Amino acid sequence: MASPIGENLQLAMDTLRNHKLRSGLTILGVSIGVATLMAIGSILTGLNQSFTNEMKSFGTNTIFVYKFQPGIHVGRLTPQELNRPPISQHDIDEVEAFCTACEAVSPQVFRDIGEYGGTPDQAMRKGHVVAGIQFSGAMPNYPVVMNRTLGAGRFYTSVENRHHQMEIVLGTTLAQDLFPRTPNPIGGHVNVNGNSFRVIGVFAQQNMAGNDQQDLAAVIPYDTFRKIYANAREHFFAAAAKPGELQEAIDQIRIALRRSRHDKWNQPDSFGFATADSIIQQFHDITAEVALIIVIIASIGMLIGGVGVMNIMLVSVTERTREIGVRKAVGARRTDITQQFLAEAVTLTGIGGLIGILGGWLISLLIHILLPKLPSHIPLWAVYIGFSAAVSVGLFFGVYPAVKAAQLDPIEALRYE
Question: Is the whole model's pTM more than 0.70, yes or no?
């Protein structure tokens, strides 16, 4: 003997088959909502994974310090932040002298904002031009502090830095773009902002996804950079804390910088610092907010589908009034009628949820094919939320038609034509 649940599902499927077009249009709204949730979940998961790998590649003991808060900025900077003086070489010297918990400190200097017309840094070689590179001057201990390894060649030495050698170390992507047909660019020359440099090294790829800004880096000796750009004042520095002394290193850096930059006791810091973990958490917080917004937007599609479910179920109740009367006449209870129509509504939206999950998976696969550098996959939470929401929509919007059907008077229902 078939179970009531099995019978209700069988009746629900019969109703769907008898009204294919109407059922299909109703399912469409739910499917779009679920597919949107799946696709966005896939993109956000890929971005989170890529960004996390990128930041963790710097190491867990690295501290980043700049005049603004390192990380992801949402909104405009305050006037107080905009008026902050750049981190100076004197500030960095104070940190090196005071921070006993720091294993090494490596400054980087960039062109001043707006200097030389504000044009982005660009590298050129034999007709190949790459704009928007990350061009800077750094000390020889840069690879140690920033956890960078060399894939080819070597890094410059302290002697080469002091003698202002015109040497450069390139990121993987930048080297490939400038030397597309040269397997080993070591010894070649590139032009950066009108100055010629000899390539002595290429960094190992920072991120296997290949979309890391560090792979567009172009690093030259610190003293060479200061010689070429004598007015450059935009400093950033990273400090590697000794094992187990990360928090102590942060405290010592903060004390040294507040003293060096003459920050008054009742004023906020005139600088910002962050670790890889704090920047990752900041990024995750932002993507979580985006995910919440997307869930709300996707819910609109499901609500539209829910209204369609209620409509089709009300029509179904009207069309099957006589059938309901017959069932009641032969002993069907109100709960039996209610369960039957709820099963139909849940089946309708459940199928929509399954189709939406499949559609979201196909979109994720398409993203992976078109954007292979973005690791994308459907997270389990998106599948669970999507299908649960679809079923919940069927339950919520199916209650009223089901109750209406259950409350029909059997005698009046039998008279219905």
Answer: no
